[in-house]
Every structure is written in C-alpha cells, then in structure tokens.
Here is the input.
Amino acid sequence: MSVTVAKVKYNQVCTIECKLTLFDFSRTVMKNYRHLFVPLVMSLLLLTACGGGTDTEPSENGEAPTPAETTPPTTPSPSPTPEASTEDDEATAGNTYKAPDDAFEISFPEGYAKQPRANGLTFVSSDSGFGGEVIYFEAEEELSENELEELFKDRYNSALDEVTWQNSELQPDGSVRIDWRGRNVEGEDLDAVSYIEQHGQTIYILNIYGINEAYDVYLEDANIIVGSYKVKTN
Here is the structure.
C-alpha cells in the first residue's frame, strides 16, 4: 500500500472516530443536564405565545422605530438538577440567594440546587420532588388584583400542556396566591402554589410545586421558602 493511500485511510478512520466521540459526548451532556435545557425551551414557547415577534411600522420621519420591549417569559418548568447547584455563585450565601440587582431574596432548606437565570432563579430539592422559580419583569402599567391573576393564567394556559385552576386569594402583603395543578411539556405533573405581585412597574412571580408529588408532602419546605421570600418594593 502506498504512503498516500495509507494516509487517506488513516484520516478517514480518525474522522469517523472523532464523530463517534462527539456523538457520545453530546448524548452524555443531554442525559445529565436535560433539566437545564427545559426552561430555555419553555421560555421560547411562552415568548412566542405572548407575542414577542410583534411587527413595528416605520415612523413618519422615516427613522426605524425603537422595538417594543419584550416581556421576559414566565413559566413553570423542571428546575436544575442537584448536580447543577450554584453554591459558589457570588450572590449565594449558604441557603440564601439574593439577586445581583437586589430585586429579590429567597432562602431554601438544605440540599436545594439553585440556578440563576436572566430574569430570576430556578430551584429544586435534592430528591427532585419539589421545586419552582422566581421570575420578574417590567409592565407598562399598574395592574389590579384581578388583572394580575388574569395575566398569570393567560401566560400559564399557553405554557403548560394541561392546567386546572383551583383557588385564588389576596394575601396580606398585596400579592395574589393562586393554587393550581398542571402538566409541563415534559409530561411531569405539577401540584403548585404561585404568588404574583406588582411593585411600581415590576411584576414578581414565585412558583413552588411538587414534581410528580403532592405539594403537601413538602409543606415544611414550602413554608421555609415562602416565609423567606422578599422582593424590592421601591
């Protein structure tokens, strides 16, 4: 066999081996960090449902108009796996997480994994049976209690495969508590309690839910999380 032919066959073998290695690596990453991709996919789905792609018309003076501000998505989704905990994040001290812009602060029982995101935080218990998220975004106007509840339900009707609204109640701090059950795009059943409130132009949402488990199984955890939750009010 000539040297040239041998080199060609060697390169072909190397190319095939490299492709197989990359394929195996990709499958491993997707398997171990599957939950980290779900909030991103759900966010894109909800952003589309909320009209994130609204067209704009040219202004009279011919200048391109400033694109309308897109409201960050809000959606319940599987939280990061315990392996994805961000205990070394600068904004995390022990079991307490404080948003870098001081928008909110929240604490958790031992063993919870926390994953900061652009407009909030997702979290999950060590056994992956209980989790949730904090989400905040800007609104163009101040909404009433009923309007906040309607906004919440509209968004989650679009984001979830199934949802059943159970109860809603105004809380002493001005937030609206909404009890519901649903199924996310991954087919996981959520037994949830959510709180939505507005301060100035900022709307805050806290979702906490059992993941294929009853909410009441984690009632002690829920009390710690909700009791520690604070948002910026000025």
Notes: The chain has two domains: 3-32, 49-53+65-231.
